Amino acid sequence: MPNRKSPPAILIRESYRENGRVRKRTLAHLSKLPAYAIEALEAAFQGGTVFSLDRLRETLEITRTWQHGHVAAALGSLRRCELETLIASQRSRNRDLVTAMIVARLLDPQSKYATACRLDPRTTAISLGAELSLGNVTENELYEAMDWLLARQTALEKRLSQRHLTDGDLVLYDVSSTWFEGRTCPLARYGHSRDGKRHRLPLVFGLLCDQAGRPIAVEAFPGNTGDPATVASQITKLRQRFGLSRVALVGDRGRLTEARIQKDLKPAGIDWISALRKPAIRKLTDQGLVSPEWFDDRHMAAIECEEWYPGERLIVCRNPFWAEECQRKREDLLLATEQGLRVVTEAIQRPKRAYRGKERIQRRVDKVLDKHRMRKHFLVTIADDSLTWQRRDENIRKEAALDGIYLIRTSLPATQISDEKTVQAYKNLSSVERAFRGFKASDLRIRPIPHRTSDRVKAHLSIGMLAYYVERHMRELLAPLIFADEEKPQRKSPVNPARSSSAARKKAASKQPTEGLPVQDFRGVFQSLSSLAKQQVRTKITGSNSFSMLTTPTALQNKALELLGVALKSKA
To answer: What DSSP assignment string belongs to 146-172?
Structure first.
């Protein structure tokens, strides 16, 4: 009841009839009672049942609890990307199992047996299996779903290309490797291991991305395949499978070599953006076509060399930060080499057990020079009982003149793409390298490869690619909550390194975004979401009635789900 300027009064009043008129009277004044007591009385007067806290505990029981928030975020993001319909237009158990494996790799990459245990309702601690209504799941079913996905991979990659590629686009291509545990996989062959696993059989895989860095297609190759040898199949894929008549392939100089350009790209009518190797740059410098003096007041310059590179544009760039790093590293290696040579000299000159013999001294010197790869910069004189050396100053000066210089080559005319955009397109290959880092180590951990057949390895890589596709989408949306720049990187020149925006630097310094929530990395946000649980509650009165309920989301969880566009549903 209103009480003038005082707080409203809480009263129990009754209506009654007296002498044919309706009257009201106050039976009790409840204003001083606690709020929960007032609510209980109100519920009782309205015909409800009032429980004490102890009675409530006796009546309800929590029969099951699942981690749910990170499952809802990943599965919701996958569905917002419409990835399920790209895999297969009609829902099936195999499609649901593939979806589950993609989400499970995002949550916590594990073996297929461990993934099956995380999906099976008898052993799971997450809600993924229940959200997809999978029921009991076995390891063999997951392998069968992988075989089913591999049969659809060609169509899936074509749909991805139709979504993200059109005629005239740039396509980024890079190659990496991983290693295989065992010796029975046909793709595992002895070759160059980028992971430093000398005693493990490597296998090679290549990744095609659009110019924004979104993965389009992945392909596995035997471990002894050279990087340039993988290019031909990518050209066939772009031309025949994706149906692109005009496309430019952007690849590193180790992939798009002169031989690949002449043998594969030109006959297929594929344009390219790549770079020249150091010997080719040195050759142009010796001919006077490239001069370090050009870069006193600029960082890039376009040149023409129809004699050696007909129909191509050459763009010479100099990164001053890279040049400083090259000079520092070279000086460190020169000093380390001289220190190693001094150790050999001291061994020759010591009074006891001195080194003697030209061949013996030569072996020690070769070991020092090869360790730091500085043989070309030293003139060494060896005798049976002496060692002298000096730096080749002219060689060092010539090499220093090329510090920080790299040369981009392209068949695209300037009317189609400017010099600045050509350089930026080549530097966008770093987005593919980031994909490889996420693939192999930081988040998705596709290595080491545990599968024994070529088909299972290919399906394993395909699941990893699709998981990265979803993760990349999530990282873009969660940028306000993680250590990521929400604005486009700022560059005065495409040659110089990109600089973070002022907002990103402020966020990194304060560790607080605009809403005041703590900034974390991507995995930290995922871990925070995992504490949002789904619980199965049952009433003890009937023993059969049960319902699902969610824990109340925190401010951080609410913000993350809002950014991802994922709405929580309390009912299973």
So the answer is: HHHHHHHHHHHHHHHHHHH--TT-EEE
Model pLDDT for residues 400-417, shown as the tens digit of each residue: 888 888 899 999 998 899
Q: How far is CA 140 from CA 94, 101, 117, 137, in A?
A: 12, 13, 12, 9
Range of the domain at 17: 11-50
pLDDT tens, position by position, 511-565 = 766 567 888 888 888 889 999 999 888 877 655 677 888 999 999 999 999 999 9
Whether residue 269 is contained in a domain is answered as yes
Whether the pLDDT of residue 571 is over 60: the answer is no
Give the count of domains, the chain. Answer: 4
Residue 343 corresponds to which amino acid? V
What's the pLDDT tens digit per position in 269-309? 899 999 998 888 888 888 888 877 776 566 788 888 888 88
DSSP-assigned letters across all residues of 242-300: S--SS-EEEE-TTTS-HHHIIIIIHHHT-EEEEE--HHHHHHHHHTTSS-GGGGGS-SE
Q: Full-prediction pTM beyond 0.85? A: no
Question: Do 67 and 148 reside in the same domain of the chain?
Answer: yes
Query: How far from the centroid of its chain's Cα atoms is residue 471's Cα?
Result: 7
Residue-wise DSSP of 341-390:
HHHHHHHHH-SSS----HHHHHHHHHHHHHHHT-GGGEEEEE-SS-EEEE
What is the token pair recorded at 248?
A: 């430019």
Q: Give SS3 for 565.
A: coil
